[in-house]
Amino acid sequence: NISMKTILISGGGGYLGTHLTQVLLKKNKVIVYDEFFFKWLYKNKKKIKHHNRLKIIKKDILNVKSKDFKNVNIVCDLNGIPNDPSSELNKKHTWEINYHGRKKFAEIAKKSGVERYIFNSTCAVYGFNKNTVNENSKTNPLSTYAKANLKAEKAIFKLKSKITWPFFTIFSNINSSGLLFVIRINLIKSFNNIEFVIISIF
Fold first, then answer.
1. Residues 9, 14, 17, 23: is their CA dihedral positive or negative?
2. What 3-state DSSP class applies to 163?
3. Helix (H) or strand (E) holding 191
4. Helix 102-111 crosses helix 144-157 at what angle (to 10 degrees)?
5. pTM listed for this prediction
6. Are 17 and 11 in contact (CB under 8 A)?
7. What tens digit of pLDDT does each residue of 185-199 get?
């Protein structure tokens, strides 16, 4: 039962976070921590139901401080450069955000007394695989995005402790899609030399 908890969603201004924020606001206080490259949530805060329970922190995760987690019960980490093609544009920056930034964010959250940490990883950590995979399957990251996320996943998992931080969860999602609020063109996929633009609408 997480009713009326204070939940911080890092990277909460993105595709998943924009929707998750509105769902969680129905029964909780929500803090969205994001630089807001995608600005819908930031610009439309007052149009959202229960926006009186919504707090915005417009900030880079590399600049996180302990005070950002004041009174926070749960962190949902959606941070990161969002996909394989984007991550290859600036590999150094991808490593700074998807590994170093997420690791630092989790470490400070734990030190600040956050009760539960939910880390959103990616199924890309399994690479190309003809078989069905699960959490026990062998990883095979092929892109900078996958490699950085897997390293962050392993580093943050080490913070788990039965005594000091027992509530830790990792999700390895596939690509998400659906109708939300703003169109974002974020991925180009090639099939038989024909390029298809995959559009996320949020």
1. positive
2. coil
3. strand 183-191
4. 20
5. 0.80
6. yes
7. 555 444 444 444 444
